[in-house]
Structure formats: structure tokens, C-alpha cells
Design brief:
The structure holds two protein chains of two kinds. Chain A is built from no helices and eleven strands. Chain A is mostly beta strands. In chain A, the strands form two sheets. In chain A, strands 2, 4, 5, 6, 9, 10 and 11 form a seven-stranded mixed beta sheet that branches. Chain A has a four-stranded antiparallel beta sheet with strand order 1-3-8-7, with no helix packed on it. Chain A starts with a strand and ends with a strand. Chain B is mainly β. Chain B contains no helices and eleven strands. In chain B, the strands form two sheets. In chain B, strands 2, 4, 5, 6, 9, 10 and 11 form a seven-stranded mixed beta sheet that branches. In chain B, about 35% of the residues are buried. At the A-B interface, strand 4, strand 5, strand 9 and strand 10 of A face strand 5, strand 9 and strand 10 of B.
């Protein structure tokens, strides 16, 4: 199985300030199709996870442009340009390269 | 608008079989190139991908659960289902169904994820 790690695991943020989450995989997620098979999800308190980013850097429909995914191979980053209070929750990265799909442990984002 | 809704018993006895169905509205489960997935989350824990089934009925299972797992498609009810046998307390979790837009992930619509408890 591909092992996914995230850092930090806890991230206190100030509204209006930027935030960044790192995700690393135990093997490259770059597929022969040229895409990195890496998704980002946000699970807001009491809710189901929601898709933010797919294929490493593509925003899902309806996701604000303050969210940006980047990276390639084994190192990926999710950046929020200006955090809003509605962005609190747990962020997960997930690899979609091989079965079984695996998730990172999650990064809990909360307001300072 | 695509919506998914899980249904099934919320309490299962140890050694018995956990069964859940996911009713899909807004799109056919046989729509070409869609997959349908199950994911679970233990209380206070992270996410675990259980398995998926394609629009044509091909299944993909997490090897850690494969010996106890069955995922099937019911086109007449526009549903897909999960059966997990020989459950233990470790199987207590919120069970989410989700639409998987591609063979490489991209879980774009999720159900509510009811908690299923395993207890006598």
C-alpha cells in the first residue's frame, strides 16, 4: 500500500492569513497519463468529506479560488491564500494511483 | 443534482454481517465511466477506502477487507450495496458511500455517513 503522510497534523490559523498543508506519498503518484493521482478533501465539523482538488492541482466545481493544489511525484501542497472561518475542519490527501486508495492522517485546521 | 443516501441497520452483533445500501438519485449507477465507492471512518479516526464498483459491475476491494467484503450493484433500484461479514468492534465506524468520478479517485459526491456500531 502507498503510505500517505501529512504535516502539520494541527494548524491554528488567523482569518485573512495564508495557510499551507504538506502531503507526501511513499511512492510517486505521477501516472503514465501525465497526471498526479492525488486528491484533497475537506471534512468540516459534523459533515461528510468534500472534494477540493483532484489530479493534484485541479479545483473541483464550486471550490473557491483561494484553494490551490500543487506538487508532483511524492510531494504535494495545499495552500489557502486567505483563510476564512468556514475553512475550519480536517483536510485529507488521498492517492488514487493504486488499489487500495489510501488517505493521509488528516490536518486539523482551526481558528486561533 | 446527484445525491446519495445510505440505509441499513445501525447496530450489528459481533460475528454477523453488516449490510448497507446506497440509493443514488440524479444519475444512473450504470452511467458510463462512473464508479461507486464505500469509505469508512472509525469514531475520532481517519478515512479508510473500503472498495468500489464500476458502472459495469467490476469490483475493486481493499485487500485488508477482501475476504469479508462484497460490493454489488442493483440497477433496478439504482443502488449499490456493501456487505461485510464476521464483523467485530473494530468495524464500528461511519460508513460513507460516494460517487467516484474516475478510476483514479475523485470522490465528488458523498452520502451522510451513518454510524454503524458493532455490539452485542
Amino acid at each position: 500500500d502507498i503510505v500517505m503522510t501529512q504535516s502539520p497534523l494541527s494548524l491554528p490559523v488567523t482569518p485573512g492569513e495564508p495557510a499551507s498543508i504538506s502531503c507526501r506519498s511513499s511512492q510517486s503518484l505521477l501516472h503514465s497519463d501525465g497526471y498526479n493521482h492525488l486528491d484533497w478533501y475537506l471534512q468540516k465539523p459534523g459533515q461528510s468529506p468534500q472534494l477540493l482538488i483532484y489530479l493534484g492541482s485541479n479545483r473541483a466545481p464550486g471550490v473557491p479560488d483561494r484553494f490551490r493544489g500543487s506538487g508532483s511525484g511524492t510531494d504535494f501542497t495545499l495552500k489557502i491564500s486567505r483563510v476564512e472561518t468556514e475553512d475550519v475542519g480536517v483536510y485529507y490527501c488521498m492517492e488514487g494511483l493504486q488499489i487500495p486508495f489510501t488517505f493521509g492522517p488528516g490536518t486539523k485546521v482551526e481558528i486561533k | 443534482q446527484v445525491q446519495l443516501q445510505e440505509s441499513g441497520p445501525r447496530l450489528v452483533k459481533p460475528s454477523e454481517t453488516l449490510s448497507l445500501s446506497c440509493t443514488v438519485s440524479g444519475v444512473s449507477v450504470t452511467f458510463t465511466n462512473y464508479y461507486w465507492a464505500w469509505i469508512r471512518q472509525p469514531p475520532g479516526g481517519g478515512l479508510e477506502w473500503i472498495g468500489s464498483i464500476s458502472y459495469s459491475g467490476n469490483t475493486y476491494y481493499n485487500p485488508s477487507l477482501k475476504s469479508r467484503l462484497s460490493i454489488s450493484l442493483d440497477t433496478s433500484q439504482n443502488q449499490f450495496s456493501l456487505r461485510l461479514s464476521s464483523v467485530t468492534a473494530a468495524d464500528t465506524a461511519s460508513y460513507y458511500c460516494a460517487r467516484q468520478l474516475s478510476y483514479n479517485g475523485r470522490l465528488d459526491v458523498w452520502g451522510q455517513g451513518p454510524t454503524v456500531s458493532v455490539s452485542s
